[in-house]
Amino acid sequence: MNGKRLILLAIVVLLAVAPMASARIKLVALPERAATVIRLDNPNATLIEEERVLTLQKGLNKVDFSWKGVQIDEDSIRLDVLDHPEGVNLLSVSYPPDEAALVWEISSGGNYAETVRISYLLRNIDRLITYKAIADKAETQVGLRSYLVLRNFSGEDFEKARVLLDYGEAFEQGIDHEETKRMLFLKAPKVPIRKIWTFDAAQLPWDPERLENQNVGIPVSYRIVNDAASGLGQFAMWGGKARIFQDDGHESTIFLGEDNAPLVPVGEKMELYIGDSRDIVVTQRKMKDTRINLRKNDAGRIVLYDTDELITAKIENFKDSPATLTMIQHIEGQWDMKKCNLECKRKDASTLEFEIELPARTEEGPAVKELSMHYHRRNVRTR
User: Fold this and answer.
1) Vertex 306 angle, CA 304 and 311, to 5°
2) What confidence tens digit (pLDDT) does each residue in 191-229 have?
3) Residue 381 and residue 301: Cα distance in Å, rounded?
4) Which of 57, 257, 261, 349 has the most CB atoms lying inside 10 A of its own CB?
5) In 3D, which of 104, 72, 103, 106 has the Cα closest to residue 89?
6) What is the pLDDT of residues 45-64, one digit of tens each?
7) Which residues contact 79 (CB under 8 A, 6 or more apart)?
8) CA 139 from chain center: how many Å?
9) Fold observed for domain 280-381
């Protein structure tokens, strides 16, 4: 028995004539696990499922289960009978005072070598997901790999276990207490990408020319779509740290950056930040912001009003190649759009997202596109 293994399991057969029928008997020998599953479906808790063969005799049996030194949530412990569910019944569960233990009272209809499944939530065993993406020199696709980093500080050793995420294939892996292991579980060699520039009007300056001694850059990302066309799309991709590289064309790679990828459901986009670019310049201004439809209280004070607002943005592409700019605009409160010259997607009640395709620059100068939004905000309260 491994010295770190601290869960003990004992069986007591209770006979009507036995004077010690109500006593608990503790053994130091541990029945071997027939199988163990470590389920990592939930990022906040780890579920352990282990199968064991219990030697039950006909009549009343008591099974003692203790876990001193192991971080088990005692309220989560469950026992399921697998071989004879009709003939073997769990009658009660008791918890001895001041002990990390419980006792199952089991009625058996015969003498059985019974397979049972014991499941429980185990603390201090968790996982991290990391990604590594290597873009080709043309920046049209990436080789994407995802790794599971399994960390065990639970007090329990697992000589061999079947590890399951909520996606990807299960794999056999042993891991001891205080051990960390890193395993490759997703490999997609040719995932299409789009290089995306993102201007968020709530985060970037509207008029960079007015900033002295500052060179404003626009964040650039590789966009990956989690779908079948990309060689993905079989499951949601958990969030995790991503490191991005690019093939330099000389049998080596360039490190582009590091990002924290969010959870990406099937069909949604993952955007991996690789740095800032000054090849695209956005100059945005508010051309009109007036109050209309004034409402006053009995004292003649304005308490509510609407607004008439106009925002324009000039977008210049100084690159020798086409580019895609994601422009994010924010309109707070209740509002309606009177006129907008470009199509957009409404992300939520106050956020608009524009996907703007920019042609390459010409000999005459940068390619230019303009955005114009004319809208009203309604029922604005006077502060």
Assistant:
1) 145
2) 999 999 999 999 998 877 666 555 578 999 999 999 999
3) 12
4) 261
5) 106
6) 889 999 988 888 899 988 88
7) 63, 90, 104, 116, 117, 118
8) 26
9) Immunoglobulin-like (2.60.40)
Q: Among 115, 100, 128, which residue's Cα sits nearest to residue 43?
A: 128
CA distance 123 to 134: 35
Higher pLDDT, 325 or 43: 325
Sequence spans of domains, the chain: 8-122, 280-381
Tokens of 261: 């990828």
Q: Tens of pLDDT along 104-119?
A: 999 999 998 889 999 9
Beta bridge partners of 146: 131, 186
Q: How far is CA 342 from CA 53, 64, 374, in A?
A: 67, 70, 11
Burial call 262-271: b when 16+ CB within 10 Å, e when fewer: eebeeeeebb
Rounded to 5 degrees, what are φ and ψ at 102? -145, 165
Q: Which two tokens stand for residue 312?
A: 């324009």
- The amino acid that residue 134 corresponds to is I
Contacts 24+ apart (CB under 8 A), 258-266: 259/221, 261/131, 261/237, 263/236, 263/237, 263/238, 263/239, 264/224, 264/226, 264/236, 264/237, 264/239, 265/226, 265/236, 266/226, 266/227, 266/233, 266/234, 266/235, 266/236
pLDDT tens-digit map of 251-306: 889 999 999 998 899 999 999 999 998 899 999 999 999 999 999 998 889 999 99
Q: Fill in the DSSP letter of residue 365.
A: B
Which helix (H) or strand (E) element contains residue 17? none
CB of 54 closer than 8 Å to CB of 12: no
Query: Which token pair is 244?
Result: 């991005």
Within 8 A by CB and 6+ apart from 212, the residues are none
